[in-house]
Design goal:
This protein has 2 domains: 2-119 and 279-296, NAD(P)-binding Rossmann-like Domain (Rossmann fold), CATH 3.40.50; 122-277 and 309-322, Dihydrodipicolinate Reductase, domain 2, CATH 3.30.360.10. It contains 9 helices and 15 strands. It has helices at 11-22, 36-46, 54-59, 73-82, 97-110, 124-127, 156-172, 278-292, 300-322, and strands at residues 2-7, 26-32, 50-51, 63-66, 86-90, 114-117, 138-144, 176-184, 193-200, 205-211, 218-225, 228-233, 238-244, 253-259, 262-269. The strands form 2 sheets. Strands 8-9-10-7-11-12-13-15-14 form a 9-stranded mixed β-sheet. The radius of gyration is 21 Å and the shape is globular. The N and C termini lie far apart (57 Å).
Length: 323
Amino acid sequence: MLKIAVFGAGHLGKFHLNNWKEIGGVELVGFYDPDDKNANEVSEKYSLKRYTDVDSLLRICDAVDIIAPTIHHFELCESALRMGKHVFVEKPLANTMDEARNLVKLAKESNVKFQVGHVERFNPAFLALKNTSLQPVFIEVHRLAQFNPRGTDVSVILDLMIHDIDIVLHLVKSNVNYISANGVAVMSDTPDIANVRIEFDNGCVANLTSSRISMKKMRKMRLFQKDAYIGIDFLDKKAEIIKLHSPEDKDVFVFDIATNSGNKSIAIASPIVKDSNAIKMELEAFRDAIINNTNPPVSVQDGFAAMEVAHQILEKIGQKQIQ
């Protein structure tokens, strides 16, 4: 039985606790949260022992789930790694790039499983496309949210856009060539809305817009590639594919259009999106990586790569604000 310790039992931490309770092969051995009021409520609701000392909790577990504020990620991850514990940590990986570099180094030296919580990798709309060849040449992303003071300890880049940065890097698999960015701080001390253009060495271009001061919610990604358009709605859990029709296509709607080069058949497909719990799936993947001694689906290197691009974006925005 894998012994799990949870660090941080706030809003998202409670979601993690609920899911760990439903996951087989694991045992919750305790949690750490410095807020007395919240900790007492959690301890009572989940019948789970609260620890007020980090090392004491680390000593009795095999793996940690860190959902604390970003500023505490490094110290908690470092303590866990130095004691040889497997680590799951929410995105972003760390608060600074120096901290992130140190965690990558420590994770390698510790020879443990380290997974970063980029939960959109487990979104059912994205998973519905796992058998589809995704080779985009242009990507357009909109991630809009209504204002919520929770999460404003970091910029909208590290709060929201980093989800899409991770997905884009995962899809494109090419080095970043150039970044241009604009951002504005409206309700907090860091950018609340930003637009970013990322150009890759392989020619792909990604245009990302994120806002946490929108009147409506939106989490959409559009992929344009040779002979195909793929739409992913992370919020409403939908996916669609529009492409040139081929004989292998099944369960598609087909219609003809006239072009200068003659008539072409267009196929529209709506992949089946299975209802699933993304948080539970990512935690199960972490458990499986430990038990089966396999690589976590979102590695510490993946978390570092997303953070590196996010910080390059913040640097570009900062340079424009200084001018």
